[in-house]
Amino acid sequence: MTATDNDAAYRSIIDAVSTGRLHLLDGLIAEDLVDHNPVPGQPAGRAGFVYWAETARQAFPDLVGTVDDTLATGGKVAGRVSWRGTHVGPFVGVPGTGLSLQFEAFHIVQFDGGLATQWWGAADLLGALLQTGARIIPPGT
What we know:
It is a single chain. By secondary structure, the chain is an alpha+beta fold. It has one domain: Nuclear Transport Factor 2, Chain: A, CATH 3.10.450. It has helices spanning about 5-20, 45-60, 125-130, and strands spanning about 30-35, 65-75, 75-85, 100-110, 115-125.
């Protein structure tokens, strides 16, 4: 697969999550995907990625990711995604607020044979939480 093919596959993963068509992930993510930054309780493999997507869509049923930037070289794609959605369900321990949130995430994804095999990601969860009105209280205060 070319870098262009991998870029297209990455964009298709974000699109599948955005549209809730999670069954499409079967043809985009290896069954034994290694997620280097899983959320608490996330199972291993592709099932874990689907778990993350389902959990995110429960918190934000209208969740949409916009791929702002990608850089593809060799078998890896680096991407910057802006996520937007209405916070209606639990998100990192905060009950739904009905507020529209927007936050960014950065990913590096390894592709082999057209499938994502490794996933590194970091999202601005602090920025998202602050948009809900959550307050950070230091320990011992």
